[in-house]
Amino acid sequence: MKINEIFKSIQGETSYVGLPCAFIRVTGCNLRCSYCDTAYAYEEGNEMSLSAILECIAGFKTTIVCVTGGEPLSNNETPFLLEALLDKNYTVLVETNGSYDIRTIPQRAIKIMDIKCPDSNMSHLMNWQNINYLIKSDEVKFVLSSRNDYDWTKAVIQKYNLPKIARVLIGTAFGAISPKTVVQWILEDNLDVRFQLQLHKYIWEPLARGV
Ligand code: SF4
User: Fold this and answer.
1) What is the 188 CA–ligand 1 centroid distance (Å)?
2) How far apart are the C-alpha atoms of 118 and 138, rounded to whole Å?
């Protein structure tokens, strides 16, 4: 399968933030979000066998592996990779953009599913059925660029009662909106969510790759 990069870092987001983690960035994405910071993963990459990927990951000696992209589910081979990682007893996180049917992700993996806000210009491509397939250990993530995105997010959270279904994460598109402002809105509205910043963008340069 075509892989953009494999590296070891700390998890910069989700409730696993700060933990050592091996990352597998799968090449390809069907969306084009306005704030995308991994456009290099749309096409770039090299073909790797499953065994070569597993060998590379083993060398990092982490207990957590995050399969990301691009969009991992844009590659039909990703479910086989996930099963192979789970069989090696890794905690497997799968970051997916919410447009593909997430039932192809094994139950044992932890789904980190985006719900794309209006300012991403991709919210019309969300697969809303996916909300039915989330479980408590999964996480849904909203990336906000504006007050309009916040109001939309709040309405979606309320409509689906999302905190009862999965963990809910709210973050900001880097540089698009003040994190402090968004946190104030969350507190004013008592939203049952976890606010997050992309930690890796504060530790390293915001555009640094492989971190
Ligand atoms: S889904 Fe992710 S990789 Fe794809 S365009 Fe959006 S931000 Fe970029």
Assistant:
1) 30
2) 23
Judge whether 194 and 186 are in contact, CB under 8 Å: no
Task: Write the CB contacts of 111 (distance below 8 Å, at least 6 apart in sequence).
Answer: 94, 96, 102, 105, 134, 138, 139
What is the rounded distance in angstroms from the CA atom of residue 149 to the CA atom of residue 151? Answer: 6
Rounded to two decimals, the pTM is 0.94
User: Quick one: DSSP state of residue 207?
Assistant: T
44, amino acid identity: E
Ligand 1, pocket residues at CB < 6 Å: 29, 31-33, 36, 38, 69-71, 97
Q: Would strands 2-10 and 20-26 be described as parallel, antiparallel, or unpaired?
A: antiparallel
Tell which CATH architecture fits domain 2-203: Alpha-Beta Barrel (3.20)
Q: Ligand 1: which atom is nearest the Cα of residue 99? A: 1
Q: What is the pLDDT along the chain (211 residues), one digit of tens a residue?
A: 999 999 999 999 999 999 999 999 999 999 999 999 999 999 999 999 999 999 999 999 999 999 999 999 999 999 999 999 999 999 999 999 999 999 999 999 999 999 999 999 999 999 999 999 999 999 999 999 999 999 999 999 999 999 999 999 999 998 889 999 999 999 999 999 999 998 888 888 887 888 8
Domain map of the chain by residue range? Answer: 2-203
Residue 143 β-bridge partners: 171
Residue nearest ligand 1's atom 3 by CA: 70
Is 17 in contact with 112 (CB distance < 8 Å)?
no
